[in-house]
Write a structure and sequence with these properties.
Number of strands: 8
Strand order of the largest sheet: 1-8-3-5-6
Oligomer: single chain
Strand content: 35-45%
Order of helices and strands: EEHEEHHEEEE
CATH superfamily: YjbQ-like
Number of helices: 3
CATH class: Mainly Beta
Radius of gyration: 16 Å
Largest sheet: 5 strands, antiparallel
Shape: elongated
Mean pLDDT: 94
Helix content: 10-25%
CATH topology: Jelly Rolls
Distance between the termini: 13 Å
Structural class: alpha+beta
Low-confidence stretches: none
Length: about 140
Amino acid sequence: MELKIYEFEIESNNRLEIINITSKVEKIVRESGIKDGFCLVFLPHATATILLNEDEPRIRDDYKRFIEETFKKEGYKHDLIDSNAYAHVCSAFTKAFAMIPIKDSKLYRGTWQEILLAELDGPRRRKVFVLILGSKKG
């Protein structure tokens, strides 16, 4: 078994934004030399989250609407320090990672599954860590 760790950055343009990072992660997996194993995509941030789901313009709007309707924007104690408490609360009740199997040097995911970074407190520059554990090709 071999462990490889990669990192890249994503820049958001809006306070609430859904960014598809699948192609960046797939490229890392292909270039890693790992044939079979697992890929962990991790955000080291407290106001962003990872979604593993379909990516289509209307569903992106639905994700944003759900976040805005579920996590109120005001009334948090943390807002006395910083005005982003809702982003912290949303992130705390979702997840900052996705674990995806690797088979034959490809992410083994469902037909419509994409890796999406949900920016909750942008615009910001975010780090994304990709950890790959598995057996090498050949």
